Amino acid sequence: MTILVTGAAGFIGSNFVLDWFSQSKEDLVSLDLLTYAGNLENLSSLNDNPYHHFVQGNISDRDLVSSLLKKYQVRAIVNFAAESHVDRSIHESKDFIDTNIVGTYNLLESARSYWNDLDQNLKQDFRFLHISSDEVYGSLDLTDPPSNESDPYKPNSPYSASKAASDHLVRAWFQTYKLPVLTVNSANNYGPYQFPEKLIPLCILNALKGKPLPIYGDGQQIRDWLYVKDHSAAIREILKQGQIGDTYNVGGWHEKTNLEVVETLCAILDELKPKSNGKRYSDQIIFVKDRPGHDRRYAIDASKLESDLGWRPQETFETGLRKTVIWYLENLNWVDHAASAEYQHWVKKYYA
Ligand code: NAD
Ligand code: TYD
Prior knowledge:
Radius of gyration: 20 Å
Bound molecules: nicotinamide-adenine-dinucleotide, thymidine-5'-diphosphate
Structural class: alpha/beta
Strand order of the largest sheet: 3-2-1-4-5-6-10
CATH class of the domain at 2-190 and 228-252 and 294-314: Alpha Beta
Number of helices: 13
Oligomer: single chain
Distance between the termini: 49 Å
């Protein structure tokens, strides 16, 4: 049997696949369109692994997905494929609708048709695990409790609205067709292989290049930060033991303001890579125009995952961030390759 991982060449998908092969010899098909955010280099350590099969393609391509499901006798789909950057969704939302909503719909339909034809035992064991975000719950006030699985959806950006729509489709395919689904709503991830448009890698790289570290608005927006390898462990557990039809919130229990995140990161760099002129990296912090509709606070209540499946994050924010900074310092070549011409073009167009 095999698992099919979509969006496997992206940040979280590739971390998940690498983590999977550190514990398993089951076949795994990586399906990825290789958009600007997908990078095959993330999976290059698996080039000689006979259990890994990479296929370039779109989750919306039903012929392709159906043939992969049959050919590899897939027992589970883990769907990471998405457009994932909020800023991009504000400037150009169409790809978010196409992949996050229509793509998820097509993937659900391909899965349903394959699943319908399976023998009873295989049918019972099949899983469609959908990866989503804490952003679907919308912005919290400072005094609100962290979001739990029964909170209402209140998405505010084109990105979070598209993820919310995909979650509703997944839920409906369970309620209506009994497709055995699981949904995972995760906090902000950080760690190796994150594309350098997101806050943490962007600030590490700008700091090293002596460029400004742009903080949107007053920098007091709060996010809950989850080390990506802790997320992979949670997904494995949910795939193994999760209750069909259920949603699981995954978070790091580490709420930080954006300013705290960047200051902590600067302090780690001061220690690991001190500047030759004796100055501090935090001197490079600047405050820039805020993101429109910028959500003030996200926070995840991950206690269901702990009580039902025994999962807790292993990393604190400080240990996870230190590992992340070290990884970027040791992999600057990866960054050069990841920052493609298309990405440079986009940055010039919108962040001029
Ligand atoms: P990413 O942008 O790094 O990777 C997305 C991957 O999907 C890329 O490899 C891309 O090539 C691929 N892809 C895009 N459209 C596709 C399509 N139509 N068909 C096949 N592949 C396609 O994103 P990420 O940060 O790794 O996020 C993965 C998932 O986790 C997404 O669903 C995202 O919404 C969710 N999520 C991310 C975070 C986070 O902090 N990064 C937090 C919560 C949830
Ligand atoms: P980001 O990494 O884009 O993830 P998301 O929007 O999915 O949470 O941003 C994390 C937070 O950091 C968010 O509140 C926006 C803020 N931010 C900045 O202040 N400056 C930046 O240059 C970026 C990219 C993000």
